[in-house]
Specification:
The complex is a heterotrimer of chains A (about 425), B (about 525) and C (about 425). Chain A has about 425 residues and is of the alpha/beta class. Among the domains of chain A are: about 90 residues, Orthogonal Bundle (Fumarate Reductase Iron-sulfur Protein, Chain B, domain 2), CATH 1.10.1060; about 110 residues, 3-Layer(aba) Sandwich (Rossmann fold), CATH 3.40.50. Helix content of chain A is about 50%, strand content about 5%. Chain A is built from 24 helices and eight strands. With about 525 residues, chain B is of the alpha+beta class. In chain B, strands 6, 7, 8, 15, 16, 17, 18, 19 and 20 form a nine-stranded mixed sheet that branches. Chain B has a six-stranded mixed sheet with strand order 10-3-2-14-22-21, with helices on both faces. In chain B, strands 1-13-12-11 form a four-stranded mixed sheet, with no helix packed on it. In chain B, a hairpin with a 2-residue loop joins strand 17 and strand 18. In chain B, helix 1 packs parallel to helix 5, helix 1 packs across helix 9 and helix 2 crosses helix 3. Chain C has about 425 residues and is α/β, with parallel strands linked by helices. Chain C folds into two domains: about 250 residues, FAD/NAD(P)-binding domain (3-Layer(bba) Sandwich); about 140 residues, no CATH class. In chain C, helix 1 runs parallel beside helix 9, helix 1 runs parallel beside helix 11 and helix 7 packs parallel to helix 8. Classes of the chains: A alpha/beta (about 425), B alpha+beta (about 525), C alpha/beta (about 425). At the B-C interface, helix 13, helix 14 and helix 15 of B face helix 5 and helix 10 of C.
Chain lengths: ~425, ~525, ~425
Amino acid sequence: MNTPQSSPPPRRSPEQLSGDPAVSDSLDFAGHEFARASLDHCVKCTICETVCPVSAVTPLFSGPKFVGPQAERFRNGESVDHSLDYCSSCGACTLACPQGVQIAELNSQARAVMKADHMPVRDRLISQTTLMGTMMTPVAPLANAVLANKPIRTVVEKVFGVHRDAPMPPAQTQTIQGWLKKRGPRKTPATRGPIVFFHGCAGGYFEVETSKRSIEVLEHLGYEVLVPKQGCCGLAQQSNGLFDQATDAVLKLCDDLRAAGELTIVSSSGSCTGMLKHEAHEIMGVDDERLKDVATRIRDMMEFLLEVADAGELPELSPIEMTVPYHAPCQLKSQGMGMPALDVLRLIPGLTVVESGATCCGIAGTYGLKKEKYEIAQAVGKPLFEMVRDTNPDLALCDTETCRWQIRKGSGVPTEHPVFLIHQALGLS
Amino acid sequence: MRKLAVDVVVIGGGSTGVGVVRDVAMRGYSAVLLERADLAQGTSGRFHGLLHSGGRYVVSDPGSATECAEENVIVTRIHADAVEPTGGYFVTAPGDDPEFADKFLAGAAATGVPAREISVAEALRNEPRLNPGILRAVEVQDGTVDGWQMTWGAARSAMEYGAKVLTYHKVTKIDRADGRVSAVHCVDLKDGEDVRIECTFVLNCAGPWAGQVAAMADCHPVDVIPGRGIMIAMNHRLVNRVINRLIYPADGDILVPVHTVSIIGTTDVKVENPDDLAIEPVEVQEMLDAGEILIPGFRKSRALHAWAGARPLIKDSRVSSSDTRHMSRGMAVIDHHERDGLDGMLTIGGGKLTTYRLMAEHIVDEMCRKLGETRACRTASEIVPGSENQKNYVVTHRLHDREEDRLEDQIICECELMSRQMFVKAWDDQPQATFDDIRRQLRLGMGPCQGGFCSMRATGVALETKHIDIERATGLLRLFLKNRWIGLWPILYGDQVRQTALDNWIFNGTLDIDHLPAPEEEVKL
Amino acid sequence: MIGAGVAGLTAALRLARAGLNVTLLTKGVGGLQLSQGTVDVLGYSPTDPATRVANPLAAVAELAVADPKHPYAVIGVDAVRTGLAFLHEELGEQLLVGDPETNQLFPTAVGAIRPTCLAQPSMLAGICMDGARFAIVGLRRLKDFHAELIAGNLARTPLPDGGHVSARHLTIDVPARPREVDSSGLTYARAFDDPEFRARFAAELRPELRPEETVGLPAVLGLKDPTAWSHLADLLDHPVFEIPLPPPSVPGMRLNNALMAAARAAGVRVINGSFVDTPVHSGGRLVSVNVETAGAPRTITGDVFVLATGGFESGALTLDSYGEVTERVLGLPLAGLDAAPLLHGDYWGGEQPLFRVGVAVDPSMRVTSPDGSAVPDNLWAAGGILAGAVRWTEKSGEGIAVGSAVKAADAIVEELA
């Protein structure tokens, strides 16, 4: 019988929600609209279940169909099914859904509503990406030593809930802005006009080499590359349900990028690009002309190179005799542009690229850093790590930063952005 | 032939009949309730789920308004588990007369129906899908109620007081001797056995079928005017409160969030036969248009299922018989002594589900008066089984329950989150049930896939309970799919077409269900 | 190529094999994954669904006369034969065995017997023949496979030649993973990929089996390891067969994964994730379509386009609340709308004509206009979008798909040569 359970969590009326200073318009949105309407398209076909990397490795997560369109019919501005927090927000379900159900978005929104009540300190801290970078850069060797230090990591785990073995970014001695200031004038003249380069926080502080090589490739193609001062896109906050902070961050970033002019924006940070292209709008409901403008103009680095190649404007590439594993990150695939890296790398003579076939590496932004998710994230990544090691123990390719950290840590294989090989094939390294 | 002897036979297992048998039993009479199908399979299960605040009648029928307001409070308490106190809005849609709101507020004040005008901005903030063009909004205390669950709750209460509730027992004849009712004959439809029940009183609560029952006692025709109304369930809650049009009651003016769905209702067309209720395409279009006025984009949202119910209205000379909506909602008790020279039988008609308890009280009072006895009604103060903890229904409850037991139990109906244990328990309690009987209690197959994924599971699990054999199991599956389709095809558009095509791929394509051994005779109940 | 079901993947692969530059646009995973994982050509007569077809290709050849509106009447038996051979070659004997001239009868998950001609090797031991002795084995934690229902119905179903199979049921409880009682077929398939799990499973089941029994199990015997089922049979020392389940269908996934991998390896550029819209026409030809890539639409141009989007089940055809049927991507004119009524209220009362509605094509699978309105010259169609068949009833889905896909692809190769 439909007997109400003994003690449901207290119901929050919309009045209470909107009267709560900690709860914003975007959360109201999360409670009500947009993705929710898409649940009508679900025909229970289970395709989403078959691609979910988390439910594949643990029964603790009830799977995307359950927590998405199924559970949403039972939600009324509140989230009683706390197991939805096991969702890594990789977005594979939304991508696989033939019906157009915004499954991952539904989950992210339900999580935001759930977390409005109780937010672990850890989820606030991890998501402060810029802060983490600025704190670590000047003292990189020390930071790296600290992060490699087991006892210290154990304390970090206890206090903040970040798993002691979780992959951490390698702090660098130089930021991209530092490099730009110190390097000399460009060697070749700009023949194709200006474009804007967006490196993202990780590309600014940790994966500086990726940013450098991307800039050099773009300059080699003849572009004048503008690198405006730029803040964080707020993705980490968004994926931890901190919609207010994330919204502020992404709009501020839009202002930064727009300040450089109405130009094409190219980014080597696949996940931040996704935040700008669609996640801020589709998950948090940010409906702002500045965001729309940036979303329309921004291109992923490899997507941009494919457009150049399709236009017949990519210079000849020198051969690289190598077989290399390539993993397309979930946050890149979810942008619905196929796998441009695969198509561009195919143009390098001699190079055999093996696509990983893996849905997700497990890290899913900050998911795999968390104490209670670490084992799951490692289990998710395991087949990928094995594939990478089996294909080429010396080099793997992947477009996003946290995924590279995860693959490096999980497989022990040096993992770089695909632009590295383009850089090489263009004779720049 | 089986034989029974009781004080009172109650005919009709809708909310009224069950309310009556509960009341009779609580007053100390021995009683049997006879229902030819399942409880609340007729009108009480085929409405929109609204527990009236009374607001709907404050202008058109003030007496009903006051009754509704009072019974709303009682039903919300005694049937706590079947009722969700959602609250409701009456809204002036674009084009509606904004001054009606003033009449409404005055009527509400006069009839004791709690009502408060709120700003349009507040209404839109709380119900963001509402038409932003609404002109005025009044908040009332509408709720929603699961008619099946409420009826079963009252039936369980009656059984605790010793009443027998016999479903699938069809009345065939009412004996009279010396101007009095002496016995009721019925047939057990499941096994074909005849049953004769001696009694001193018969209470005819058969609603739209009350005329047919009265005829079995050779009474003069009781003019019941069945008014057909269609309802459409939409896939999810488009609103979280009952939304009414702030106009004189009309077709398609109400949207009710019940369980996981929202139900738009309803039409009103006079019909001859309450067993033959078509869902006319023109009425479906009328409902969708009406929905579009309340919720822009309504037609693009997903319709799951449609059904028709028959209002049990007794003919009233004050209005034309073709206009059933404006006939008296008030209940009418017909005394067969005066009109037919028959003692020991009363017929009740009219009323509405919200006031089912009050109707029962009235007819049982009348019976006591006839019997010359004074026994007080206690149904308003006693909580029915299942509602003891006084917690009202919340839409999240099954999600919460499954969150608790997901790792210990299987989910058979995923759309409505019905677990295997829930199903098995219901089956053990009613081994002769059909899947539709279980559906009415547990919402099996009532979600978006409309049985596409759960009906094969239900068939397998039912067989494993050992209460039925392979032929009946397969027959029940065929019956369930047949019955689901009756409510599906009239609203088959949009996402539900895709669902149907996928379901067909599963049932015909993968399972080849249409080439199972043909039954010698289809299972019907 | 628009669509990634069996028709889209087959056509894309064949075009790529012919050296063409193919971009495949898809919204999500294609419908092949939802299928039972066999390749059906024709199981029942399209004009009389009660009649089982013994020789599918022979029956297809007859349809040109018997049912001229049927897609097979336009596709023709030769293209079907070519298509099946192509698919067979691409998938290999590890995934597909059988003879398109002969239907065999396989048990379904409700215990009906279902005809098909090409099945996965893991299903073969389940062919229903007089005197067969089946032990149908359910898994306690898998809710989509009820051994008692299957065995009960199989045992009471007469075979076409009047014979019978005997079938008994048993249910065992071997968890696919700890702490889970509601495991999907896919979860079990992943477990069966692990030889250790197979050994554990076999150790539980083997003592329950009787001599001479053939073991029927849910179709979950491995997803990635094509030898999982035969290894299990060795461990049990009994023949083993798989019975397909409703989605998630592991046999369907095997076929889908294999075809998608082959298409990618053959150089097909796959763009997944967006609905296709905004067709641009010029001079009677389709020039480009848009995909709603995140951020802003991207325009995809092509010399020719193939519409392989499926039927109502995929949303390629829609019926709106006013009763209007629309082809979703290009708004093409449709055939089959003249049937009245398109739907009726008797579930067991015969086909619903709505599901025969679709796109009309000429014998090269080029889209034609049934009502004289304009259609692009460079547009082909294949698979479920074609008008004229209720594929789930007659069991013709894959045959129509691969026949039309290969025919369209070959015509395109010729056109572009």
